[in-house]
Amino acid sequence: MKRIFTLLLLVLTQVSMADCQVLLNKVNTCVDYKWTSGPYLNSRGQRNFSELEVKFFMKDDASESPIKIDGIKVYPWMIMAGMQHGTRPVQTTALTNGSYLVSEIFLRKMMGHWEIRFGEDSDDFDPQNDDHILGKFIIK
Ligand SMILES: [Cu+2]
């Protein structure tokens, strides 16, 4: 009986979390994202901007209604051997469907991997400080 209950709980947990692509645990918020352009990893001389549509919703909201995210910063971040760095500032625009369009994302092809980091938007925001990062995903 206990085993069945555990199994059921596991299944239920997976169902309720199914559409949470990135969990921002500290603010109880889920992120769904899709690339509307790219992602382009630019070689030398190329200049293709990528665009990401991002929806934020409360973790426990089964209807996944989009919420406003004042105070959350979307930040492309490159991890290389021995160094990390960002890129030029992105543009974040609110869409009528409640999601956000993150545009002007400029990614260069390098010996490393790009991440999209969701950070707390504060004056002293530091993309290398794990305490300032709410969640992230690796760009593949
Ligand atoms: Cu680099």
Automatic annotation (TrEMBL):
Signal peptide position in this chain?
A: 1-18
What UniProt keywords apply to this chain's record, in alphabetical order?
A: Signal
* Name assigned to this protein: YtkA-like domain-containing protein
Origin species: Halobacteriovorax marinus
